[in-house]
Write the structure tokens for this entry.
Amino acid sequence: MEVLVCVKRVPAPGAKVPLTEDAQDIDTRHLGFTIGPHEECAVEEAVRLVEAHGGHVTVLAAGPPEVAEQLRYALAMGADRGVLVDTGAAELDPEATAAAVVHAIRTLDAEPFDLVLFGNESADAGHYQVGIRVACELGLPIVGGIKGIDVDGAAGDRLRLRRDVATGVEVYEVPLPTAAAVKEGLNLPRYPTMPGRLKARKAQLLTIPFEPAAGGLRKVRLRQPHDDREAAIVLGHGAAAAPAVVDVLEELGAV
Amino acid sequence: MLLTVVDEQPGSLDTLGMARTIGTPVAAVAFGTAADGAKLADELVKHGVGTLHLISHELLTDYAPEAFGEALAQLIARLRPEGVIATGDDRGAEVMAQAAARARLPLATQCVSVTGGDPWQLTRIRGGGMLLEDAELTAATKLITVAPGAAGAAEISEVRAVDECVVEAFTPELAPELARTRVVARTTRGDGVSLATAEVVVSGGRGVGSAAGYAVLEELAGLLGGAVGCSRVATNNGWRPHSDQVGLTGTKISPKLYIACGISGATQHWVGCMDAAAILAVNTDPEAPMVTRATYAVIGDVHDVLPAVVAEIRARAGPRR
Ligand SMILES: Cc1cc2nc3c(=O)[nH]c(=O)nc-3n(C[C@H](O)[C@H](O)[C@H](O)COP(=O)(O)OP(=O)(O)OC[C@H]3O[C@@H](n4cnc5c(N)ncnc54)[C@H](O)[C@@H]3O)c2cc1C
Ligand SMILES: Nc1ncnc2c1ncn2[C@@H]1O[C@H](COP(=O)(O)O)[C@@H](O)[C@H]1O
């Protein structure tokens, strides 16, 4: 099975989210980067599917050249090949991102993919649409919110996809090739091993430069949400705080 | 004209309020049978909506994201509305993204406010509430989804009822192939207190220390009739199932009381619990962001504080508990 996973490089802020002076981006001078948890699960699932059924895992990220770091992380988790779609430093709108991903997939057309995995939404922008736009452009079926993937059918040419809804679980059965947008909880991603990291560090990435046209959604500025919380009331220290805690629980009607 | 996507879910008509802040007239669109349409029209009359575009087709009798999106895209092509507004729940977001992709239109998701005109000026949520983004949306038909909880019902109460809501039937042309992404089976979850709806959530992070360490959280949650939650560190360590995880990539909750035990309060966790009416933080570190942003705090070790709280509750309840 040939599996493609699309991942995005996102900042990993702690308790505060600093902004740049022009309010266009998160100030990442003192922050690390990561791929979103949904996408980490997508990489893990792809690696497991290929371990079980053969084939290759390709990971693809569009963005500045630094996305190489996230591609190498996915390679260290067990992906076979990394594709860097170099679209420059500026954040892309979701139509432009989808165009870049589609362009890259068409460039890789010699080896068509059986399965294309996305995160349900990107961790920073959360547009909830890049995967659907790409699948639609490529004529692939796609279902979002997936938390379970089983290969089905005698010929292994169908997938059973499960997703959680408020009332329970919905099951979909789609023919390959297909796309799916997955959520954290699909699996428990592995930590890359030391040999995996070393191999990933040396791996060649395929770079595809692309300048997509802008879409109709234009970011003007980012803002911190308003937070007018007062300082916490400290009820006490250690076990001695228990009576004060239960007083509050009673006041709130919790006991 | 603005189109608002509605269904029978409670709160679905809240988006009408957001639509009216953008412009008028506002018409509704829904998927379903003639009977569904009649029922919705009765409700829409009270909300001052005079037209319901009812999309019906045999491929739409059960949820099918591609078919729903294609049908909506065809209705957009026919009516050429100024904008289409839908609730940003999982299904609403998916159908709108499908429609946007098929109609080749931009889509702004997770909006909390919109000002009409050309372009639309809007504010949307990023990172589950970590940041706000002001943006401009330029398109022949502008598509938005409303962040869950952002569309207040307030404006609706001021709206005058209309005499009648006319149901306009629309039958899209759907290729049978679109049935490939259709629900083929369903299982229903058992009862029990669910994380998403519990009034009290007792949640633990790295500070709980181990899977076994959650026993006292379970016990306290039991006494308070609540559910147990956790941070991503607990999930990643295999201490708790992911279904317990609160946060950006877990569940977003709004209980009456959130008790955060040994959780530092990283933004990705915070956005999942910040809508709680009250937060009690239990943490060894008085400077932890969860402690400073909570309503109440106890400085101390989870495994000293929680057993004492459990004992105190039992003591006050009397000797027979
Ligand atoms: C894109 C992205 C998405 C994410 N999504 C989520 C998400 O949905 N949910 C989520 O939770 N996280 C999420 N995270 C992870 C998040 O950034 C934090 O790493 C995580 O929330 C930290 O968990 P924690 O508070 O349990 O651990 P830590 O940050 O390590 O904090 C542990 C806390 O416990 C306290 N402590 C230690 N020992 C004790 C003790 N004995 N008694 C009392 N207190 C003690 C410490 O003082 C500290 O404050 C995400 C991260 C990224 C990058
Ligand atoms: N720059 C990117 N490069 C590769 N994949 C991306 C990029 N942006 C988004 N995606 C994929 O599309 C999914 C949905 O993103 P979004 O529409 O921004 O919420 C993500 O989880 C990724 O799998």
Notes: DSSP finds six helices and 13 strands in chain A.
